[in-house]
Design the sequence.
């Protein structure tokens, strides 16, 4: 079991060396934009995983007037250690003006 820890640390440091958080965000948004044909508006979360990175990306789905009624979508995007998109999935749709409230 002692051997697994150094291997994990090497893998994590290789990931950070190849694709840091800023370049992972850029990679996730650029590739998602190519697939959807729409520019992402923001990245609401980004976290490293064993295989690469996972991001939640917010995209304008339908522009409306007033802007607070525009329809937004949140996408879960997974990229590998090299920054290549592995998968994406729409996780929710909501109005831009919608405020998350505690349950």
Sequence:
């Amino acid at each position: 079991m002692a051997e697994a820890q150094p291997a994990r640390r090497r893998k994590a440091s290789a990931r950070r060396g190849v694709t840091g958080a800023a370049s992972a965000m850029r990679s996730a948004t650029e590739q998602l934009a190519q697939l959807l044909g729409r520019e992402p508006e923001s990245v609401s979360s980004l976290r490293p995983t064993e295989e690469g990175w996972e991001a939640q990306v917010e995209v304008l789905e339908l522009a409306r007037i007033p802007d607070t009624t525009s329809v937004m979508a949140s996408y879960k995007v997974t990229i590998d250690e090299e920054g290549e998109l592995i998968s994406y999935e729409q996780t929710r749709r909501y109005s831009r003006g919608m405020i998350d409230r505690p349950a």
